[in-house]
Every structure is written in C-alpha cells, then in structure tokens.
Amino acid sequence: MNITAPYLLFLGDATDKLSIKMAQGVADWRPDLCVGQLRLPGCEVSTNLPDMSIQDAHAKGAKTFVLGFANSGGTIDPSWVPYIIEALNAGLNIVSGLHDKLTDIAEIRQAAAAKGLQLIDIRHPQQKFKTANGVSRSGKRLLTVGTDCSVGKMYTSLALEKAMKQHGFDVDFRATGQCGILIAGSGVAIDCVVADFIAGASESLSPANEPLHWDIIEGQGSLSHPAFAGVSLGLLHGAQPDALVICHALGRSSMRGLSHCLPPSISDTIAMNLAAAKLTNPDCSIAGIAINTSSVDEEEALLICERITAEFKLPCVDPLRHGVDMIIERLS
Asked: Is it true that domain 140-328 has CATH number 3.10.25.10?
C-alpha cells in the first residue's frame, strides 16, 4: 500500500483519545505529512493540529483524507459518508483503517471512480504474497516484540528509526499495522494477511538490501497472547531479525483483553522470541528492552530501567522519556 501525502485527518465525532490512534500516531511522528484535522460537532479530542475544512485543506495541498479513528466494530457511520464524498469531490484520495470497506459503499465507490481517485482500505491488503522460503538475505533487520499487545512496539520502532537516522545510519521503518502504514506511507497490514502467507509477506516487506542498511520492522501482537501469537510468530520467521528489542508496559495484571491470562516475565519473553527467531536467523540477539513507564513518575521510571538493565545486562529505556541511544550503541 502506498499513500499520498499531505493528509487531512478526519476525527469525526470521536470522544475517546484512544479511538483516534490512527490520527494521533501520524500527528506525533509525521506532522510534516499533515495539513490539519477536521472535527465534527461533538468531537471532544484533538491531535493538536489546526482545525480546517475540506476545502481549506485542499487549498493547502492536501492529497488524502484520512479516517483517523478506530470505533467499536470498525464501522463506517452513515453520517460520515457526506464528508467522504465532499473530500472526493475536492480531489482527495480516501484512507480508512476500519473493518468496513470504503469500496463496499456504492456512493463512495462511484464518486471515487468518477474522479479517478484512490480508496485505500488499509486493513484489507490487495497484494498477493508468496509463502516464505527462509533463505538468508542481505541487509540488517531489527524487529520489536512484546510481552503483550499495545505495549509500545510501534512507538519504539519509530524512535529507533528517528535516532538511527540522526546517528547516520541507513535505515527505514517498515510498517505492519494500519497506524504504522499511515505514518510510513506504505507497508503491509500483517494481521489481515492469510495465515500461511504472513511470513512471506514479512519477507517481502524487508527484502534484501545493502549490507549496512537497517530495516526497523514494527512488531505485532505477542507470542504470549493466545489470540495474536500467530501473527507474531509469522513476523519473527519472515523478518529474519538480526536484533530484537523487547517491549513491555508497566502495571499489567493480565494480558490485554484476557483477564484470565497472566502476562509473561521479560525473561520468558526473551527466551521465547529468541528461540523462534533463530529458526530463520541463528545469529539473532537481543539489542535492548523498551519499557512504557507512563504509569509512574520520572524518578521511579529511571530506577525501574536501571534495575532491569542490571538484571539482564541489556540497555533498558523508556524510548519517549530517555531516548534509545543506549540500544543503538549495540547495533553495528
């Protein structure tokens, strides 16, 4: 999938900050790709980008109208259709990360066809993938993996890419989820790929490259999560990572969405992920540990990271609070 910037981010009538993660992610990491946001009456959240109309955004060069939210069930509310049609009539492509397909709504499909514009349903990849072959390929790859879902794998990956570029690395962020694809402008929604082709899609996402080039591959799910371990394993095998960064969020008493499942230890997470990764890259190693410490204050966050660093003899940081230079120092 390839998405044309700049974007106008449509927040609809969202009231929950977490529901606009699509929009917030790109506003945080690629504000240069955005001209502004469009909010409807009743919207109680913001990306802190300028509010503007579709016509104003078009005048400022917007090329794509992004449905920047994820509601319960991933549905396209009929009340949003007139705004999507207005954006198409203004010459903007449309991007959605919802489960409902833009292309399934006749009015939207016909308006896009009449204007020769793209309807991009990020969660529904159209490309054909081959099964993985496990053949070693040139270039270097780092994959973020987690003790659970939603522990900061995307933000850690983006922090690594940003800092590595500042340090002069030849590096690219490879997106595997709808938010990451919007931020990167391309990628594969890996959790929507048929199971047999997940590893093959991962191979195609990070193909052979120059020997010193790094691909930072956004992780998905967790090997310890009963619902999403399959996509995590496929990514591990297809990515052939040279390095893993273990991502963890403080304060979890159970796996996300599964109150009966205890989260794994960092030690068990390291062992499981290394064992799986070594199937396709026997030289894979752990580069560091990234902790989401947002639930504690700065002083406690530093103490926790120092303790984990001492325990595992690996750099442990909160990427947003402390940066990732300590992890980058282990990459060559």
From this structure: no
Show me where the domains of the chain are located: 7-121, 140-328
Q: How confident is the model at residue 1 (pLDDT cuts 50, 70, 90)?
A: low
User: What is the fold, at CATH topology level, of the domain defined by 7-121?
Assistant: Rossmann fold (3.40.50)
pTM: 0.89
* Mean pLDDT (whole number) for 272-277: 98
Contact in structure between 218 and 177 (CB atoms under 8 Å)? yes
CB 202 within 8 A of CB 238: yes
Residue 175 backbone phi and psi in degrees, to 5:
-85, 140
| The pair of three-digit structure tokens given for residue 162, joined into one six-digit string | 């940003």
Indicate whether 314 pLDDT > 70. Answer: yes
Cα separation, 176 vs 228, whole angstroms: 14
Q: What is the 3-state secondary structure (H, E, C) of the chain?
A: CECCCCEEEEEECCCCHHHHHHHHHHHHHCHHHEEEEEECCCCCCCCCCCECCHHHHHHCCCCEEEECCCCCCCCCCHHHHHHHHHHHHCCCEEEECCCCCHHHCHHHHHHHHHHCCCEEECCCCCCCCCCCCCCCCCCEEEEEEECCCCCCHHHHHHHHHHHHHHCCCCEEEECCCHHHHHHHCECCCHHHCCHHHHHHHHHHHCCCCCCCCEEEECCCCCCCCCCCHHHHHHHHHHHCCCEEEEEEECCCCCECCECCCCCCCHHHHHHHHHHHHCCCCCCCEEEEEEEECCCCCHHHHHHHHHHHHHHHCCCEECHHHHCCHHHHCCCC
Intrachain domains 7-121 and 140-328 with the same fold: yes
Whether 189 contacts 125, CB under 8 Å: yes
